[in-house]
Amino acid sequence: MTQPQRILVLPDAQVKEGVDTEHLAWAGQYLVDKRPDTIVCLGDFFDFPSLSFYDKGTLAFEGRRLIKDIETGKAAMELMLNPLKELQARQRAAKKKVYEPRMVFTMGNHCDRLMRVPKNSPEFEGFINYDLLGLEQHGWEVYDFLVPVEIEGIYFVHFLANPFTGKPYGGTAANIIKNVGKSFVQGHRQCLDVTVRPTIDGKMQLGIVAGAFYTHHEEYKGPSGNNHWRGMVMLNNVKDGYGDPCFISIDYLKKKYGK
User: Fold this and answer.
1) Cα separation of the two ends of the chain
2) pTM of the predicted structure, to 2 decimals
3) The three-state (H, E, C) secondary structure of 156-168, written as one string
4) Do the Cβ atoms of 9 and 40 come closer than 8 Å?
């Protein structure tokens, strides 16, 4: 019988040039302090504004470059994982057991902007792909956009899509869990929304829309649209499709690890 797991979930970070990333270093410190069994990044760690179609041709689009999007995202990833790498180096030097969590990265729709380049311009096939992000070099298991990853009966994915439309399920987490019938944790929507329901066999199901993990404001959302929860989720005692959620806000991380 397997032991219950602890899973740390990182929702959308949407890293791009010019935004603050200090909170990612705090996330890395929290990771090595708590040492969960598994880390799940729900996608859209990279924002890729240079590949956005929404404001292409506008003044706001001027100066964007794909190489900058990639370099900025990779630097932020290294910032977050540096505490883990340093801990592992110390453990190896001391010939102690090395803490090596499972690391799961599910691609989001912003990440998928990169893969639309070879789809729309076949001459880039084999040249532009997820390898440019260097994720596997850090130890991440990389899963394509909208491919759910099942861990202890909970499905992790950027968002759950309606099979008839391909679009994200709308409504609350309670509405989504009624549609999919399984425990899930997803990103994509900046709100924090949680539902728990019992099943007829005496078990529990969990549904979480995990909010966002960035500190900047998105202009397209307007003044009130940026008033949403920002943080990470730790699932404790994860087994058989359920885990006890603990919510770690960026404000808490700042108080604990900020200088």
Assistant:
1) 43
2) 0.92
3) EECCCECCCCCCE
4) yes
Q: What does the alpha-carbon distance between residue 38 and residue 180 come to, in Å, rounded to a whole number?
A: 23
Nearest Cα residue to 174 out of 204, 203, 205, 195:
195
Residue written as token pair 């900046």: 190
Question: How many C-beta atoms surround the C-beta of residue 171 within 10 A?
Answer: 10
Q: At CA 184, angle to CA 213 and CA 171, rounded to 5?
A: 80
Q: Report the alpha-carbon distance of residue 173 to residue 192 in Å, rounded.
A: 9
pLDDT tens-digit readout, 17-36: 999 999 999 999 999 999 99
Q: Which domains does the chain have, with CATH numbers?
A: 5-257 (3.60.21.10)
For residue 225, how far is the Cα from the chain centroid?
A: 20
Structure tokens that stand for 255 in this block: 């108080």
